[in-house]
Structure formats: structure tokens, C-alpha cells
Amino acid sequence: MDDRTYGIGELAADLRRIRAESRDEREILSRVRPLARRVAANKAMWLTDRLCQADAEQGFGVHVLHEEPDHTLAIFAVSWLPDRGTAPHDHGTWAVVVGVDGPEKNEFWERTDDRSRPGYAELKKIGEKVFDAEEVLAMPAGTIHSVWNDTERVTISLHIYGQHVNYTGRSHFDPDQRIETTYQLKIQA
Ligand SMILES: [Fe+2]
Q1: How far is the CA of 112 from the centre of ligand 1 (A)?
Q2: What digits encode the pLDDT tens for the residues 95-104?
Q3: Helix then strand then coil, % of the chain, to nearest 5
Q4: pLDDT per residue as tens digits for the range 129-180
Q5: From edge to edge, which strands make up the β-sheet containing 155-163?
Q6: Quick count: other Cβ atoms within 10 Å of Cβ 12?
Q7: Distance from the CA of 6 to the center of ligand 1, in angstroms?
Q8: How far is the CA of 172 from the centre of ligand 1 (A)?
């Protein structure tokens, strides 16, 4: 197969096929992984200057490249400003992230409270890993991570979600203040 023809539209078609064939999250993640790497390796086909623009207030730019009419199977290009990132959060759905340009540091967190107090959450850091271009991070629903761009230039990653994360009711955490809030992304115009 000629990989130079594999872009966002082809990835979206494969996501629809995978979802039609499997309801098992582990299987979906393992099937999406190599496709994410493939589309990242083929960035010349789809990565435009516009997708590298970021929101200074948010610290990163979110560009929606695809979603189904019911907001499922969302594909975002996310551009991270130097020395910026995002606090711990979950997604409310499965997520596959692949590096496209530059390394991004991910920290992983575990919730340690009993979830009985609304707005309250205790988190413990359980690991970290830097993901460079074409490295894939597959996260089952419930995974909590934070992302940081430690470099001095804009980094880009491609994010694939079972559902657009502004429609999942997912959470944002402040581990120091032990606060859980809802997390809505500002989408780049
Ligand atoms: Fe995330």
C-alpha cells in the first residue's frame, strides 16, 4: 500500500470500520495505534501552517480535523506552545495520541480518594514518559494524564478520541488544591 495516500480522511474511514467491527476498547486501541503512527509519519500530506497556531491563553491550540455528526470518532491536531501544557485530566472516552513534531512530556496520575465528595479529588503521580514524533500513547477511558512542552518551540501531536472530549463531561484536576472541575477545550477558529 502506498502510505503517501494515507491522511486524515483515510484514518477517519478506518476508525468507522474499526468501530463497526469491535466494541472492545482494548481491541480498538490496539487497532488504532498503528494507524495513528502511519498518519503521523505522513504529516507532509496534512500538516499545514494553520494547524501549528496555538491559543496563548490556553497554552495550546486545538484544531478539529474530523468528527462524526454525533461527535464520536474525533481527530484533533494539538499545537503546544513552548513551556506550556495542560494540568491532569481524563477524557471520558478512549484516546490515542501520537507525536507529530517534537517531544511532549506526559505525566500519569492515579486517583486515590473515594470519589464521594463532589469537586474534590486526590491524585498521585504514577509515572512519566516523553513521547517523540511517531510514538503512540494509547489510553483507555479513565486514564488521567498531564502534558507539557519542555522544548523552546511549538510541538504538534495528533489526538484521536472515541468521542469529542467537549461532549464527554470529562474532568480537569488540580492535584495541589485537590480540586476536580469540568474541562472544556477552546477550539481554534
Ligand atoms: Fe489528554
Answers
A1: 19
A2: 999 999 999 9
A3: 25, 40, 40
A4: 999 999 999 999 999 999 999 999 999 999 999 999 999 999 999 999 999 9
A5: 60-66, 72-80, 155-163, 95-101, 136-139
A6: 19
A7: 24
A8: 10
